[in-house]
Automatic annotation (TrEMBL):
PANTHER family: BETA-LACTAMASE FAMILY PROTEIN (AFU_ORTHOLOGUE AFUA_5G07500), BETA-LACTAMASE-RELATED. Residues 14-378 form the Beta-lactamase-related domain. It holds the Pfam family Beta-lactamase. This is Beta-lactamase-related domain-containing protein. Signal peptide: none annotated. InterPro entries: Beta-lactam-related, Beta-lactam/transpept-like, Diverse_Enzym_Activities. SUPFAM superfamilies: beta-lactamase/transpeptidase-like (SSF56601).
Length: 413
């Protein structure tokens, strides 16, 4: 395949765009990183790591972000690795390892555990977790639409003698089995599926999720990524900003309850939200996946080629695709075994076949095999779906695609 690069004029225009928007104050500081199959072709950003603290470092490629739901792709890759190793299959019943899935129930309300229900008729499998067709949902709290669910924020979980049992106690409440919105495999809903993938990794491998990901993903790719906010990572951490009801940005002061950040207290690893990493390190993984997908020579691939292909292959029903498209507010979306997938071009932006996702605090990534690039965008602002950040991401992506130069032949080893 040919290799995509930036033109000199395109890079200059992108530099100017980013410089303007890191200074205009509409969003906190941010960073953009881009890679082709050979390596990084762009990294630029700016702004303060700690809002309103002029002594704090400028945000750059090595700044650390709490990536929230960008963790989900990595939890999926960990399970796909176990499938490659023959220790799991897509059809493995989740109840073989996690007891609350032996008798799941389909509930009539997703906003409360005080609900009528009926036994699920379909066994929840590993594939249902991978493509979010399990029926597992994040409960909707009427007065806190943008907050994180208590399954992530409860201090009781980490303080319990058995953190996983305490977690399931919160999720189940008075119900006899894990609550689902619909029969597994019939639809899409965003929820706890990725966390269950992480718990499966631990049950099957005998390692905790941190250990498994380090051994099979992070260390092979040279990523200093962790479920622990270690002192080394905290030195480079970009702190959250908060947009208040007036639309103004202010310093983070726990306006919304978050996950436990103190590494000495973390006793349960969340495959749906719990990782800290730099955008440069996350881009290493995206580039590696892009290389495998496009048959670029790599040594020690983390996944088999046929497994990587599943990360770009639609797997939802038509109803599931409609639900996902409604959730993201973009047409023609699907979900693979790890990521959302575009089934059509986005004008002036990513191409059909792009696999992507983002995080609660505004980070985002995609892999566009048709164009031959992977992208990361790092920012830290709450509440989630910040309008100014969403507008900026759409604009910066269009600027990036306008900056691309005609591809050239790669320098293969």
């Amino acid at each position: 395949m040919s290799v995509t690069t930036l033109s000199a004029t395109g890079k200059e225009a992108l530099d100017k765009f980013i410089a303007k928007h890191t200074k205009d104050g509409k969003v906190p500081g941010f960073v953009l990183g881009v890679s082709n199959v050979e390596g990084e072709i762009y990294f630029q950003g700016g702004g303060l790591s700690v809002p309103d603290d002029p002594k704090s470092p400028e945000i750059d490629a090595d700044s650390v972000f709490w990536i929230c739901s960008q963790t989900k792709m990595i939890a999926a890759i960990a399970v796909l690795k176990l499938i490659d190793l023959g220790k799991l299959s897509y059809d493995t019943p989740v109840g073989d390892y996690l007891a609350p899935f032996k008798n799941p129930v389909v509930v009539d309300k997703t906003s409360t555990l005080n609900t009528t229900f009926k036994p699920a008729q379909t066994t929840v499998t590993v594939k249902h977790l991978l493509n979010f067709s399990s029926g597992l949902f994040y409960p909707v709290v009427k007065d806190d639409l943008f907050g994180l669910p208590i399954g992530y924020t409860s201090n009781d979980i980490h303080a319990a003698a058995d953190p996983l049992a305490e977690y399931f106690k919160i999720l189940l409440g008075p119900l006899p089995g894990i609550p689902l919105k619909f029969e597994p495999g019939t639809d899409f809903i965003y929820g706890w599926s990725s966390d269950m993938l992480g718990f499966l990794v631990e049950k099957v491998s005998g390692q905790n999720l941190e250990q498994f990901c380090k051994a099979h993903i992070f260390e092979p790719l040279g990523m200093k990524t962790s479920f622990y906010l270690t002192p080394e990572l905290k030195k480079r951490l970009v702190e959250l900003s908060f947009r208040n009801e007036n639309g103004d940005l202010c310093k983070w002061n726990n306006q919304i309850k978050a996950i436990e950040h103190d590494p000495s207290k973390v006793k349960l690893f969340y495959g749906g939200i719990g990782l800290y990493t730099s955008m440069r390190d996350y881009l290493k993984l995206l580039r590696h996946i892009l290389q495998i997908k496009t048959d670029y020579p790599v040594s020690n691939p983390v996944l088999k080629k046929e497994t990587v292909e599943t990360m770009f292959t639609p797997s939802l029903t038509e109803k599931g695709s409609e639900s996902l498209s409604t959730f993201i507010m973009m047409p023609g979306l699907q979900w693979s075994t790890a990521l959302a997938v575009c089934t059509e071009d986005w004008p002036q932006r990513r191409r059909k076949g792009t696999a992507f996702w983002g995080g609660w605090a505004g980070t985002e990534h995609f892999i566009d095999p048709a164009t031959g690039i992977a992208m990361v965008f790092g920012i830290q602002v709450a509440p989630t779906r910040d309008i100014e950040s969403l507008k900026l991401k759409a604009q910066i992506e269009a600027e990036l695609y306008a900056a691309l130069a005609p591809p050239h032949l790669p320098n293969r080893l």
